[in-house]
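Consortium newsletter contribution from the modelling node. Members have asked for a concrete example of what our holo predictions look like. Here is one, prepared for the iron/sulfur cluster complex that several groups have been discussing at recent meetings.
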Amino acid sequence: MAKVIINEELCKGCGLCVRACPKKIMELSKTKLNSKGYHPAEVTDMSKCIACASCARTCPDSVIEIYK
Ligand code: SF4
Ligand code: SF4
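And here is the predicted structure:
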């Protein structure tokens, strides 16, 4: 199964990865805040991830790593 690692502390909550995901499984956390005050991105259902890396390529700050 694919694994998506999100470095929450580096995320600025821009939402670009949310729009980039073809499976609609990325969202900005409604509960977490990082130390900069942003809601970090998170994966809602890892079992639906196809490891396309669209989210990782889109992120301007290289916050996301994908493993297959
Ligand atoms: S790797 Fe692809 S399917 Fe998985 S979370 Fe990122 S954009 Fe979505
Ligand atoms: S694109 Fe990167 S910085 Fe923007 S919300 Fe997604 S992980 Fe965070």
